[in-house]
Design brief:
- This protein has 13 helices and no strands.
- It folds into two domains: 174 residues, no CATH class; 57 residues, no CATH class.
- The chain starts with a helix and ends with a helix.
- It is flat.
- It is mostly helical and 274 residues long.
- 82% of the residues lie in helices and 0% in strands.
Length: 274
């Protein structure tokens, strides 16, 4: 069922895009400068669509799982799809689900997801040097679609990235995330009640799956995770603050301490070399 829906989605999207491109290509007699510019933009958009297909396929299992977990967390189909439409950030949406399950307040959820997404400032700054000059409104629109995956595709593209290319990449990835989030919720709604309740464990499994590869690459991430867990346990078990604030405070404290230690180590190494 899932593979069939996935296949249908991509076939429908491909045919629709091809139809649009054919309509755009059917220009009247005479080639004007504006026609050439529009044709170039259409070509870049098509290249972006092709480059974004791999992201769309990669989002399939992640978005599907998000939809399943959203259902077990108590979100309705409309709330699940609306979150994917407005937020469009996998890690933040998964964290939001866990915080919602804890009954965390809206301010703590916003603050936590803001901290998680601070890296987007760096990615946007980097891409600003890569993309061509364009109207501010266009930049505002496609900046919404910047994720780790879309950033990687655009940043590794040879030469400057045209606006059409970005819109193409983001169109495929965004629609894939939203559609499969809703599909995951629909599948979750048809699962037996016992299985739906047990799906809550998958949320922790997802976080472990995201954390372990990072821990293998960097010892700093190991210390950060352990320190964050210790702080969160102290705040929660000691009933010092609410669950949501405990997570936010533990995250900030751990990051500050680890980075402070890194700065001290670098300063010492510089002094020893001199």
């Amino acid at each position: 069922m899932v593979l069939g829906a996935m296949f249908f989605y991509f076939i429908l999207t491909e045919n629709l895009l091809l139809f649009i491109l054919k309509c755009v290509s059917a220009t009247r007699g005479g080639i004007e400068l504006a026609d050439l510019a529009f044709s170039k933009e259409s070509s870049e958009f098509k290249k972006g669509l092709q480059a974004g297909i791999s992201i769309g396929i990669g989002y399939f299992p992640i978005a599907l799982t998000f939809g399943l977990l959203a259902k077990t967390s108590g979100l309705s189909l409309s709330e699940t799809v609306l979150m994917s439409l407005i937020v469009f950030a996998g890690a933040s949406q998964y964290i939001s689900l866990s915080l919602i399950a804890y009954g965390t307040g809206i301010f703590e959820i916003i603050l936590t997801t803001f901290i998680v997404n601070i890296r987007h400032f760096l990615m946007s700054t980097s891409l600003n040097e890569k993309v061509e000059e364009d109207h501010l409104i266009n930049k505002l629109i496609y900046s919404f679609g910047i994720t780790d995956e879309t950033f990687s595709v655009v940043a590794t593209k040879e030469g400057p990235a045209a606006t059409g290319f970005l819109f193409g990449v983001i169109s495929v990835s965004y629609s894939s995330w939203v559609v499969f989030s809703g599909l995951g919720h629909l599948i979750g709604a048809n699962l037996p009640q016992t299985l739906q309740e047990s799906m809550g464990v998958a949320l922790y499994a997802m976080f472990i799956g995201l954390l372990v590869p990072s821990m293998k690459k960097s010892v700093k991430v190991v210390f950060l995770a352990v320190l964050g867990a210790i702080f969160n346990s102290i705040f929660t078990i000691g009933d010092l603050m609410a669950q949501g604030w405990a997570i936010v405070t533990a995250t900030i404290l751990s990051a500050v301490i680890i980075e402070s230690v890194e700065v001290i180590k670098r300063n010492r190494s510089v002094r020893n070399e001199s």
